[in-house]
Amino acid sequence: GESVGLHLPTLSVQEGDNSIINCAYSNSASDYFIWYKQESGKGPQFIIDIRSNMDKRQGQRVTVLLNKTVKHLSLQIAATQPGDSAVYFCAEREDSSYKLIFGSGTRLLVRP
Amino acid sequence: DSGVTQTPKHLITATGQRVTLRCSPRSGDLSVYWYQQSLDQGLQFLIQYYNGEERAKGNILERFSAQQFPDLHSELNLSSLELGDSALYFCASSVAPGDTDTQYFGPGTRLTVL
Lengths: 112, 114
Fold this sequence. Notes:
The complex is a heterodimer of chains A (112) and B (114). Chain A has 112 residues and is mainly β. Chain A has no helices and ten strands. In chain A, 0% of the residues lie in helices and 54% in strands. In chain A, the strands form two sheets. In chain A, strands 1, 3, 4, 8, 9 and 10 form a six-stranded mixed beta sheet that branches. Chain A has strands at residues 10-14, 19-24, 30-38, 45-51, 56-58, 62-67, 72-77, 86-94, 100-102, 106-111. Chain B is mainly beta. Chain B is 0% helix and 53% strand. In chain B, the strands form two sheets. In chain B, strands 2, 4, 5, 6, 9, 10 and 11 form a seven-stranded mixed beta sheet that branches. In chain B, strands 1-3-8-7 form a four-stranded antiparallel beta sheet, with no helix packed on it. Chain A binds chain B through residues 2, 4-6, 32, 34, 36, 42-46, 49, 51, 89, 91, 93, 97-105, and chain B through 2, 4, 31, 33, 37, 39, 42-45, 48, 50, 55-56, 58, 88, 90, 92, 97, 100-108, 110.
């Protein structure tokens, strides 16, 4: 399928290494954050979320860190696999609305 | 598979035309969201419905409209189409717009306006 965001920042990692994808969010009133993974030709797929009253949350091979002081969110993927290659988006939700505001995305390439 | 379905998968039409995109949410989800994804603007929120009523509005053009039906499926209507409307259109659904609002996305409809 057609690539989304041909000029996205790209992170290239070796298979088996850990990956860290960063995201700066814009609104200090945002209370809920989500990471999505989007493979070529598919819709965004939910990975992990975190509420603003937490600073860390772990899932299977993934960890999300939230630093509200500097409005920064990161996604750590342990033992990165070829199937992790995709575009990753962070999204924030304001506590006064229900809409998600998406970041511009980062392309993760996993080298075999 | 997220459980959200969208039809059609691809749509090719001409400028000035009108099209309707359809979305069926996951079973049990009451809220539906529409997003537009273009190469130069990323994922943009368009509009949200909850149980048949409009709940939030984003960057949706006046030429676009949407509705959610009693069976909870939703349609996005795009009229007077322009070349710049070519994009991927995603529907997402969630149980309800609540404390944590995990949205599950469908596979999208790729619209090409010639």
